[in-house]
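Researcher: We are triaging several targets before committing to wet-lab work. For this one, the compound of interest is 2-acetamido-2-deoxy-beta-D-glucopyranose. I'm pasting the protein sequence and the ligand SMILES. What I need is the predicted three-dimensional arrangement of the protein with the ligand bound, expressed as structure tokens, so it can go straight into our comparison scripts without reformatting.
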Amino acid sequence: MKVQVSAFLVLALACCVSAQATWSFKKFQDGVEVPLEQGPATELRSATLQKLKRIRNLPRRARANVDNPNDCGAAVTGTGFTSIVGTWNVPTIQTTGASPPGLLQWVGIDGLSETADAGIQGGTLSEIQDGAQVNFAYVDMLPAALQQAMLTVETADTITTNITTTSTTSGVITLSNETRGTSIVATVSGGTALSRTSAEWILQIAETSNLAPVLFSSVTVTGSAIASGTTVSLSKASVVSNFNSDCTAKLVGTTLEITDGSGGGGF
Ligand SMILES: *[C@@H]1O[C@H](CO)[C@@H](O)[C@H](O)[C@H]1NC(C)=O
Ligand SMILES: CC(=O)N[C@H]1CO[C@H](CO)[C@@H](O)[C@@H]1O
């Protein structure tokens, strides 16, 4: 019996576990490298990141039940997307319910083609812990679990995230806190090959397609992408919203305005 179990495990590993992306991090203060306060990977302090990590590790079929369409923002589609940059303010959030979901703000490449199970993204997320809002920075490249980036993020901070792919399976994500002068440079390799067919600026609720439990103050996003060497303005993007009236994404010139349809804009 024991032999059978380990034979099964070996088979399972051989057949289904794809290569994991590997990450390395550097931290800068006003352009000067400083020590990274990177704790052990098991000590993710964000409940949302832990939750998303558990989901990521589920078998694909089980994951389908929790991979709901839960994005609000804008995206450009086409070919040859190699880079995206986005700057946004971290919103104030309020939540209701026993296990309130977190709210993620991110930019990414191939984030819309999740069926291909490929994508690279980076950004910030906000959640409520013991009644108070806490914010984190994170990076993500499938198929590995999301990685917390040790960047201090406070509510209302202005964050710029630049993702630049160096091949279809590698890239560099720079998360900069414009308010504090701190940045994290995260380098990844070995991810699932990207098709580089979309670039997106997104606000996402974790693990549900219902935005009702979260109220958020408006998020203003600026940015651009690069496709085949040419800059693509955010003004060329199409609005994405899976929340009906719960979230409104609107392009006003080169600015993306994301507002809560259920009254959160009143913060
Ligand atoms: C991201 O940063 C790289 C390196 O500084 C730069 O070459 C690229 O233009 C930036 N991406 C965008 C979309 O501006
Ligand atoms: C390096 C850097 O981006 N520094 C900025 C930090 O934030 C302050 C306030 O927004 C700016 O004045 C600095 O230029």
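Researcher: Any quick observations?
Model: Residues 30, 178-181 surround 2-acetamido-2-deoxy-beta-D-glucopyranose (ligand 2) (CB under 6 Å).
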